[in-house]
Amino acid sequence: MAHIQEIGPELWTVKHPFSMAGLRLGTTTTVVRHEEELMVISPGPFKETQWKEVEALGRVSLLVAPNKMHHLFLSDAQDRYPEARTLVAPGLLEKRPDLKGAVELPQSLIEWGLQQRLLGGLPDLKETVFWHSPSRTLICTDLVFNFSSHPHFATRCFLCLNGANGSFGPTRVLKHLFLKDRELLAADLEEIVKWPIENIVLGHGDNVIGDGRAKMESAFGWLTRAR
Ligand SMILES: [Fe+2]
Known about the structure:
Blueprint: E1 4-8, E2 11-16, E3 19-20, E4 23-24, E5 27-34, E6 37-41, H1 48-55, E7 59-65, H2 74-80, E8 85-88, H3 92-95, E9 103-104, E10 114-118, E11 128-132, E12 137-139, E13 145-147, H4 153-161, E14 167-169, H5 172-178, H6 182-192, E15 199-201, E16 204-205, H7 212-219, H8 221-224
The protein binds fe (ii) ion (FE2).
Fe (ii) ion binds at residues 69-70, 142, 203-204.
């Protein structure tokens, strides 16, 4: 079982095995700490031992669904932490009206050491990416994948078709299905790469440790250089 990984000061990830439609893409939860409070971004299918590891870091007080896709395990986290506030992507509450007490993400969570940007041009995703200044880490969810060659045959075939086997960057699904306005996304990415990004954590695949800004610039050159 995957354990919690410290990425830098006050930031951790938990990698969960997770399959959908037979594809073993896994999913990642990111944990941010401020003083003794914890923000849990994209709660995944936690095992009890993993929750215990998180709880050893502080008190879970904020649950976050950073886009309209990563909400499947949010109710479980709400049940475990009924005192925690829940913040969700714009439009998610129409899809998940059952999420108790959830409100849309505010425009600033600066007190957590985070800057953020709601990505334009992706109306069916509505992903907010965060930059965590203490760890100089960009927190993405579905904006980019980062898989080395996948050991599972069907998943590897899917990733190859999706332009995401053995490389870092946006998938073909994101570029050709989710992306509706290239100008809007390009404008946001030009702002994002101004942050001094060292590391990148993401929903599917391996964390990037070091050289994050250059990786983002390279992965989105097809979009930003076209402007
Ligand atoms: Fe995802």
